[in-house]
Amino acid sequence: MGTLYMVRHGQASLGADDYDQLSELGFRQSVRLGQFFAAKGLRFDALVAGTLRRHQQTLAGILEGMGQAGEHLPWAGLNEYDSEAVIATVHPLPLARPDNPEAYRAHFRMLRDGLAQWMAGTVSPRGMPSYPDFVAGVTGALAHVRAHHTGQNVLMVSSGGPISTAVGHVLGTTPETTIELNLRMRNSSITEFAITPRRLSLLSFNAVPHLETPEHAGWMTHA
């Protein structure tokens, strides 16, 4: 039996003009995760990552922390949904960048509402696939791992939406539960699945053992 380690990217740049860029802390989270993997003696037989910049930067940080190099398989189906396009379906007027706690809460309330409607098929965010096609991109990556890497350790770097979708697919959760899983995910967190030829089984969700030390407690983030 192998293990699939799905890792959410490190802290990106919420509120900046370009969200798809790790912050300095986000890169440090990624390097720290790689150091944690190395300390466990863990090596990966295969590397898979979404094609967004924050996915590539997170993978590079993990490999730097592990002192490991390697080619990875880029998988666009692991890319995140466009949160601005989702919010625009329920609030079509331009929004200011969130810069205070109440603005962030409002942002995530609208995101939750837009996600629910997208998943139900009642809205079509501009430039995004339908929700069934989004799910197919994620489940295609899972099927690839089952088909090619049973008995191996696989590192897969993605975002909160695809990872929560993978968990929802494996556990058969409702769309509402999948959304809540998505919005609770921490940066650089690990979600583990046991790999067998017939299925994946969830082992852990949203864990940050590499940050659970006094010197790293302030590194935990969600955005």
UniProtKB/TrEMBL annotation:
An example of a Pfam family matching this protein is His_Phos_1
Q: Which UniProt keywords apply?
A: Hydrolase
The record's section on InterPro entries has: His_Pase_superF_clade-1, His_PPase_superfam, Mito_Ser/Thr_phosphatase
The keyword RNA-binding belongs to this UniProt entry's keyword annotation: no
Domain of life where this protein originates: Bacteria
Q: Is the keyword Hydrolase in the record? A: yes
Read off the CDD domains from this record.
HP_PGM_like
Which PANTHER family does the record associate with it?
PHOSPHOGLYCERATE MUTASE-RELATED, SERINE_THREONINE-PROTEIN PHOSPHATASE PGAM5, MITOCHONDRIAL
Indicate what this protein is called per its UniProt record.
Histidine phosphatase family protein
